[in-house]
Amino acid sequence: MNAPSGTSHATAPGEERETPLFVSPLPQPPSRRYSSLGFVRASRRNGLHVWPHDAYERDWVEQRFFGRKRVLLNKPGMIHRVLVENHGNYGRTGTSIRLLRPLLGDGLLLSSGETWKHQRRTIAPALAPKMLPMLARHVAECTGEDVQALAARKGAPFHLLPAIQALALKIAARSMFSLETWEYGPAVRAELVRFFHHHGRARLLDMITPVSMPSFHDIGRARFRRRWSALLDRIIDARERVPDAHGPRDLFDLLRAARDPESGAAFDRAELRDQVATMIVAGHETTALAIFWSLYLLANVRDAQAAVAAEVRDADLSPARAGVMFDALPYTRAVVSEALRLFPPVWTISRQCIAADRVDGLSIAPGTLVLVSPWVLHRHRAHWANPDAFDPSRFLPGAPPPPRFTYLPFGSGPRVCVGAQFALAEATLVLARLIQAFDVELADSDPVRPTAAVTTSPDRAVPFRLKPRGP
């Protein structure tokens, strides 16, 4: 699986494919399966390193995990059973709840049962496709501002990911709050960095003790939760002091006005705070990584970057037109889709079986840890040709779509990411504007490998050069 990098070539619109395709450096799979303790240690170092070679070829992989069964599912019918057909029988694991609740509270990502249904019904209209032009306007405004700042660097090398994370956070904040100057950005980013560094990685006690039994590490998470909630309350207070407009300006207006279509209930203050946290965190960190990996791939594959540049050269990506341009950028969108395949920001989906089930002939006992890993699934030998290679033509109009449940960058089933369409549009529009403005290059030749703890990130700070394009 750890193939060497090939010649930088991808199939652009109207071209015949040439070989070899570009293959990014990858973490080496283990030569044998880990013990339970070895799995925990490997997960903390790099979650992409835990699955052996045969996991990328088999329908499922079973292992023991501290006396319980752990099973990785790769077969589409099995994934459909767990995430769609019988999803109510597979709840979030105690580990994921313990790690994420301090950050997201009881928002849409972590809620369950009737609470989740109420939140989903209430939020879905705010992120309906008809809202895309309003949200795309914020994307275009923020990206345009950052293009000016990046141009002032005049091609000097800099670490790109923090800049993209700051841009994505600004987009998320402005989409949520419409605040032209967002003074809280540095504080929000600092808290998120602190959380991911100190609290976001699962430790042994997090995995083996019930959520109802606080661990030593939960003390620090509780302190973080108090600081984080207070910061979110200050942000909401500031937004509520802004005079009302005649119509919705942002997601905050939409969420504040939203009513459950069945009960008529609105979000109370605590629920509103948790939804704001969920949308800011889930809406900016994963999108920033999708944009970063897209730029990394284009920096390595010059003809693919040239194809994007040709597509966006005369595109009107202004705030007034960005919302209608998304469908006019098929190659740029295909690059983002392929980056999401190769480097899915959410690298694993974990569930715990509640009642005994049978999944395509496999018996699943109560308490079994059931995993679907987009990282493995997107590189599975049975589902993809040249699975480790960068090839945007897989997602161009006219190409056969991936079989269902083999491509899950946003999850699947009732709990699929409610903002998936907006996230794809945002990443596409930002990438289009950046390539329209800059020729993107890597500033060194050191290998870049993905690593995963909470999300799929580069294993080092990667310097880039963004050189302004000529007329």
Identify the notable features of this structure and list them briefly.
471 residues, alpha+beta, Cytochrome p450, five-stranded mixed beta sheet, three-stranded antiparallel beta sheet, 45% helix, globular, disordered N terminus
What does this structure look like?
There is one protein chain. The chain is of the alpha+beta class and 471 residues long. The chain has a domain at 95-346 and 402-468: Orthogonal Bundle (Cytochrome p450), CATH 1.10.630. Helix content is 45%, strand content 10%. The protein is built from 16 helices and twelve strands. It has helices at residues 36-45, 76-85, 94-104, 113-123, 132-151, 160-177, 185-198, 204-208, 216-240, 251-257, 269-300, 302-312, 322-325, 330-342, 374-377, 420-437; strands at residues 60-65, 68-73, 90-91, 158-159, 349-353, 357-359, 362-364, 369-372, 438-442, 450-452, 456-458, 463-468. Strands 1-2-8-5-3 form a five-stranded mixed β-sheet. Strands 4-12-9 form a three-stranded antiparallel β-sheet. Helix 3 (94-104) packs parallel to helix 9 and helix 11 (269-300) packs across helix 16. The chain is globular and about 65 Å long. The two termini are 42 Å apart. 42% of the residues are buried. Mean pLDDT is 88; it is low at 1-14.
A few lines on this structure:
With 471 residues, the protein is of the alpha+beta class. It has helices spanning 36-45, 76-85, 94-104, 113-123, 132-151, 160-177, 185-198, 204-208, 216-240, 251-257, 269-300, 302-312, 322-325, 330-342, 374-377, 420-437, and strands spanning 60-65, 68-73, 90-91, 158-159, 349-353, 357-359, 362-364, 369-372, 438-442, 450-452, 456-458, 463-468.
